Predict the structure of DNA helicase IV.
Amino acid sequence: MPSTDPVLAAEAAHLHRSRAALVAMHERAGALFDGTVTAGDAVSTAYLRQALFRRMVRLQTDPATPPFFGRLDYRREAGAGRDESLHLGRQHVTAEAGDEPLVIDWRADMARPFYRASPTEPMGVGLRRRFGFADGELTAYEDEDLTAPADAAADSDILQAEVERPRSGPMRDIVATIQPEQDLLVRADLQTSLCIQGAPGTGKTAVGLHRAAYLLYAFAEQLRRAGVMVIGPNDSFLSYIGDVLPALGEIEVEQYTIDSLLERCLGVEVRGVDPVEVAMIKSDARMAQVIARAVWNNLAEPTENLVVPRGSRQWRVPTYLIAETLQNLRDRGVRYGAAREMLPMRLAHQVLLRMEAAGDSPDDRVQAAVARSKPVKDCAKKLWPQVDPRKLIFALLTDELVLRTAAEGILDEAEIAALLIDRPPRSVRSMRWSSADLALLDAAADELYRTPSYGHLIIDEAQDLSPMQLRALGRRASSGSVTLLGDLAQATTAWSTGSWPVALAHLQQPETRVSELTAGFRVPASVIEYAARLLPSIAPELAPPHSVRRGDGDFAVIASAERDTLLRGIRERIDRPGTLGLICADRRLPEMAGLLTEAAVDFRTLGAVEPGEGAVDLVPASLAKGLEFDQVIVVEPAEIVEAEADELTGLRRLYVVLTRAVSGLLVLHERPLPAALG
Ligand SMILES: Nc1ncnc2c1ncn2[C@@H]1O[C@H](COP(=O)(O)OP(=O)(O)OP(=O)(O)O)[C@@H](O)[C@H]1O
C-alpha cells in the first residue's frame, strides 16, 4: 500500500526510479558482454570483456538490498557551496550516461559527511536522513537536523535496529551504519598503514573489509595492478566473511589464510605438525638470519683463473678479479638468484676489459657471446650455485653440519638439536612440511628473488601470527601498506605477538600508529562483563569494551552439562530468531555430534569437509575465532581451557568462545569453572 506520509511516498518513488535505473544499467552491461564485443586484438578483447563482466557482476541487483540507505541534504546555511540532495548507496546509479546520479557510492567524497558530520562540524550538511527497510521496501526514515544540536544528539532507532538485528548466514556489510571512529579508519589514505587493537565485536573485521572496498574505489588506478589481499585465521572464517566484499561490488580481492597463501606461492602442502617447542624456534625472527646465511654460504671462493679461448687467443681473468666481481655483486644488495643471473655478464665484462687492454675493440655482442661461453658458464655455476628453497630448508633441518654452519652464534645448542629432525625423510620429496616450515621456505625464496608486493594487505586476527609469518606478509607489502587487525587478549598461538609495535617491526612497518576500538557491537553487556572477568589474567593492560546494544542480553550459567540440560538449552533456543552456536572443546566434538544425532537435532559441524546445513552450528573451540551467533551455548569451560598447551592460552581461548554471542549466552558446566571467571 502506498504510504500516506508524503516524505516516505516521495522517497519510495525515488527508490523505485533508482531500482529501475539499476536494472537498466545491468541490462546495458549485459548486452555489451553478450559475446559480440571485440576490441583491436585478442588480448584487448579479453581485457575489455573481463572489465565488462566485472561491471555486470557489480551491477547485479539483489532485490533484498535497496539501492540506497541514506540521504544528505547539503545546505548553504550549513556551509555548503550550493543546496543539493544526494542519496547514498552501495554503488553509483544513473538513469542515462551523463545524467545527474540518482544514487552516489558511499565511498565518494561527497558521502563522507553521512558518517562524520556532527552539529559541531556539519560539513556543509543541513539534514542527514537514514532509511529503514523491510524486505527491500522502504518502511521508515529518520532525520537529523545538523543545524539543531539537540536533535542530532538523539539515538538512532534505525542504527540500533541494525546493530541488534538477528544474525543469519554469513557476515553482512555495515555501509549504512559505519560509526565515525570506524569511518576514520576505513577512509585513511592508501599510504597510511593502520594497526587496530579492539576487543571482541568492536568491528575490526568489518572495518578491515570496508577499508578494502574503500581503497579499491578511491585508489583504483594504483591498486588495479598491485591488488588487495585479505588474510584471515581459518577457512571457516573466510567463508563467513566471503560475501561482504562482493556485496560491496568488489570481487577481485584475494582472501587467504597465511597457510593457504604460502602453500599457493610455494607450491607445497602442509602435511606435518611440529611439536610446540620446535614450532617456536622455527617461528623466531632469528631464523631469517640463519636462512640468509644458509643461502649465501653457497657461494664458493674462486681458486683458479678463468680462461676463455676465443679464436687463436686465450683470455685469462685472475682469481682476485673474480673474487672482486663476486663481492661487487654482493655489495649491490641484489637477491641471490637475481645476482646469479647477472654473474656471467659480469665475468664476461672482465674478459672484455682484457681484450680492450690488448688493443681489441669488442662490442656488446662479443660480451654476450663470452657470457654464454662454456668456461664462463661453468665458472659462474661453480662459484654461485643454484639454490632451491625446499632443498635448502630440508638440508637445514636434516644435515647437522649445514645447520651448525648457518646457525652459529645465532641459535644455541639446544635449539640446533631441537630443529634437527630425528629420523629424516629420505628425500626432500617425502618431507612433510609443517605450517612453520612454510614461513622458512618463504624466507628462503625471498632471499633468492624479491617477493612481489601487493598494494594493500588486510591482516585479520593478526595477534596469532608468528614473527616469521609476519615477515612473510611484510614482504608482500614491501611497496604497499597494511591494515593490521587484532586483539592481544584473543592470542591463542604459542608464537603469538605480545605487543603491536613488535609485530609491526616484523612486518617492516614500524612507523604505523596503533588505534583502539572500544565500542562493542556484538556482545551484550551482561555477557561482556562476564567474559571480561578473564581480562586481568589474560591481558591486564587492555580495557573491556562497552556494549552499544540496548538489551542487556540473555545470560545464564548452569552447573550441569548433562544430556538433558543441554538438549533443553538447545530446544529453548532453536526457534528464536537468528543463529545458534554450540561451542565445546575440540576433543568433545564427536561426543556432541553423536548426542545431537541421537536426539534428532538438525546440525552442521564447522570445519568438517562437508559441513552441510543445519539449525545448530556445532563449533570446535579452536574454530570459534572471528565468528558470531545469536545464541551461544558453551559446554564445559574447564575443558576448553585445559585443551591448550598452557593456562594463559586456555583462558584466552575461553575468552574468544564466551564473546561470540550476539543476544544470549548459556554456559553449562559439570566441573568447577576456571578460577579466573570468579
Ligand atoms: N557500525 C556498525 N554498525 C552495525 N553493526 C556493526 C558495526 N560495526 C560492527 N558491527 C557488527 O558487529 C559485529 C562484530 O563485528 P566484527 O566481527 O567486525 O568485530 P571484531 O572486532 O572483528 O570481533 P572479534 O575480535 O570477536 O573477531 C558484526 O556483526 C558487525 O557486522
